[in-house]
Amino acid sequence: MAAESEHGNCNAWAARDPSGVLSPYSFNRRPVQSSDVALKILYCGVCYADVVWTRNMHHDSKYPVVPGHEIAGVVTQVGADVKGFKVGDHVGVGTYVNSCRDCENCNSSLENHCPKGVYTFNGIDTDGTVTKGGYSTHIVVHERYCFQIPDGYPLAKAAPLLCAGITVYTPMMRHNMNQPGKSLGVIGLGGLGHMAVKFGKAFGLKVTVLSTSESKRHEAISLLGADNFVISSDTQQMESLRNSLHFIVDTASGDHPFDPYLSLLMVGGVMAIVGFPSEIKMHPASLNLGARTLSGSVTGGTKDIQEMVNFCAANKISPEIEIIKIDYINEALTRLVNRDVKYRFVIDIENSFK
Prior knowledge:
The chain is of the alpha/beta class. It folds into 2 domains: 10-163 and 300-348, Medium-chain alcohol dehydrogenases, catalytic domain (Quinone Oxidoreductase, Chain A, domain 1), CATH 3.90.180.10; 165-296, Rossmann fold, CATH 3.40.50.720. It has 12 helices and 17 strands. Strands 3, 4, 5, 8, 9, 16 and 17 form a 7-stranded mixed sheet that branches. The longest helix has 13 residues, at 302-314. The radius of gyration is 20 Å and the shape is globular. It starts with 9 loop residues before the first strand and ends with a helix. Pathway: Aromatic compound metabolism; phenylpropanoid biosynthesis. Belongs to the zinc-containing alcohol dehydrogenase family.
């Protein structure tokens, strides 16, 4: 199915130009060093970041691009100094594979904010090579950026936790959005939003989904367990929620107004943005008059990632996924752009490269 197109020890699919079309590719992974873990990739989640960099939307793509930063697999080799992993362990790798390990952020387990952090794909590693992601058969990473997946947790469902899951878990924990009985609004019901709903319910919150699409009402309430569903373009429905929410997690990446959502927060409420709209426009009164906070967040540090994975395993929280083979990836990325997925594509890597 996914035949080699060039020589190398790792088979993959890559985009060669801004068309973003992926096709078979082969390259060499580095040898395992003393602090490294090598893993056979079994599954890789599909994130909108894969669209961004395969299509050069940020004008910094380094072709050929092998995307994928929601990686789950099995350890095949460990370096001589590795203590936390052994061959056969189920593990995951997320959105970054290196950092300086010496700055204030790294020393606080906030490696995701290290100024020298290295993304899992399309990044420049410390040896000057361009990183290549999880649309591939194996990967080698420093043990610090590798995470244990508890036995019994399905690896296919573990993969999206490494980006979609941690991206909403991090701000929820930072802003104490885990207080039973309080109210949470979730803007958008995609790969990130549906995980925010699941975490909110696990924390004992009253969850309201805020969406532009009436078609998502049934799945929000019946499938995901949300308590309420509101069409954000309906001013009457929005007015009924004014000053009623303790928290909001905003997962929408498209441009949207902020004042209507901020007006839903109680005094002292917090709205956390995890998407990337092109700009944020709001009236200062939306914050000032309610002593509200508008906060940003991106992925999570290594300590939070392992904590989140363990929490999901302990509480039987898992993303809703659609498993595909790698030869369907171009169609899948088009569907992702068109928001035609419930709620995360996951590539069956193991069975795609046989």
